[in-house]
C-alpha cells in the first residue's frame, strides 16, 4: 500500500487507466473492461473539490465505450486524455514557497489492487 501525506488543499489527480484502475488490455482480451480491486473505494473517497484527469493510450475510437464503463461504475473524472504515447509519463511541478511539495508519483505493478491511502494534514 502506498501512503501519501497531503495538505487539505484541493488536488489534481492524474491517473492512468489500463493496468492501473482497470485490467490491462481487458477490453481487448475479453471484449470488456474490469475494474481492479480498491478502485471504487478510492474514487469514492476523493473530496468533491479535487479534479481527476484520466490518461490512456487507447485510441479515440475506443473512448465512448470506456466513458460509459467508467460512468456505470461511478468512477468520476473531469477530463479523459486519450491517444497518448506508450512511454513514460513525466510530471513536472514547482514547490510552494512554504516548501509544500506539489507533485507525487506512484508506480504500481500492472493489474495489482489499487491501494493508495491518503492522510490529509491541516499543518501542511
What would you call the structural class? Answer: alpha/beta
The total count of helices amounts to: 3
Query: What's the CATH architecture?
Result: 3-Layer(aba) Sandwich
Question: According to CATH, what is the class?
Answer: Alpha Beta
β-sheet strand percentage: 15-25%
From the N-terminal CA to the C-terminal CA, the straight-line distance is: 22 Å
Q: Which fold name corresponds to the CATH topology?
A: Rossmann fold
Total of domains: 1
Kindly report the spatial arrangement of strands forming the biggest sheet: 2-3-4
Helix content: 10-25%
Low-confidence stretches: none
Q: State mean pLDDT (0 to 100 scale).
A: 95
Radius of gyration: 15 Å
Q: Helix and strand succession?
A: EEHHEHEE
Quickly describe the structure.
This protein is 17% helix and 19% strand. The chain is of the alpha/beta class and 124 residues long.
Describe the structure in your own words.
This protein has 124 residues and is of the alpha/beta class. Helix content is 17%, strand content 19%. Strand 3, helix 3 (63-72) and strand 4 (79-81) form a beta-alpha-beta unit.
Topology record:
Layout: E1 2-6, E2 12-16, H1 26-29, H2 39-45, E3 51-55, H3 63-72, E4 79-81, E5 116-120
Which characteristics define this entry?
single chain; about 120 residues; alpha/beta; Rossmann fold; three-stranded parallel sheet; two-stranded parallel ribbon; 3 helices
